Amino acid sequence: MRTTTVGDVTILLPDLDPEDLDQVADLPIDDIRDGLVDGVSWRGEQFADQSIRGCRITGADLGEVSWEAGALYGCEIVGTDLSGATLTGISIERCSFTGSRFTGTRLTDVRLKDVLFDNCRFDYATLNRVSAAGSVAFTNCTLGHGSWSSCRLSGTALRSCDLSDLELESCRLDGADLQGSRLHHFRTPLDNLQGVALGADQLPDLTRLAVEALSIVVRTEG
Q1: Which residues contact 205 (CB under 8 A, 6 or more apart)?
Q2: What ranges do the domains of the chain cover?
Q3: How distant, in Å, are the alpha carbons of 39, 90, 183 from that of 26?
Q4: What single string gives the DSSP state of each residue in the chain?
């Protein structure tokens, strides 16, 4: 069993042996299992009620795919482009994403459990009703200029991420670990941050959020 720990979050990772995987080039009409998906281009393809299980996906172009229902389980995704993709009602469990791109991606009603996003780009991405059913971590990710609404991400680790211009609305992040993350122009109601963990160096950004939320007028004497 392979695990990794980010702060207080321990994630169960996929444990794949490339020698046990079969090369996959063409997109099948049914589920994909135990496959090695390397450098394929399935850009703009449609997935419906399909599952991808026990696969290693590297250098793939999955930009603008539309995936509704189904599951991604026990997979490693490395250097893969999912820009502009639409993921709706899928479950992602025991998966790791490394150096992958989600620019402009839309995730709706997505369930996450034991998922690690490392050095990924989520700039301009939209997350709506995304929930963490288990351990989830974002490390060294770019999440700026995105929009998250009605997400339930309690206890999630967002370590050393760029949250610049990320907008949160009606989200639950209680117990989330935001230490080391950049909060420049981070936009959220204060109650979305109830119970999060921050570093001392992030307190000026938190003060700015509080001043803006409470419409406090700061004046110099004289």
Answers
A1: 183, 184, 186
A2: 2-213
A3: 11, 22, 42
A4: -EEEEETTEEEEEP---GGGPEE--S--SS-EESEEEES-B-TT-EEES-EEES-EEES-B-TT-EEES-EEES-EEES-B-TT-EEES-EEEEEEEES-B-TT-EEES-EEEEEEEES-B-TT-EEES-EESS-EEEES-B-TT-EEES-B-TT-EEET-B-TT-EEES-B-TT-B-TT-B-TT-B--GGGGTT-B--GGGHHHHHHHHHHHTTPPP----
| CATH number for the domain formed by residue range(s) 2-213 | 2.160.20.80
Give me the pLDDT at residue 198, please. Answer: 87
pLDDT for 47-87, tens place per residue?
999 999 999 999 999 999 999 999 999 999 999 999 999 99
Q: What is the pTM of this model?
A: 0.92
pLDDT of residue 183: 84
Question: Count of residues for the chain?
Answer: 222
User: Between 216 and 50, whose confidence is greater?
Assistant: 50
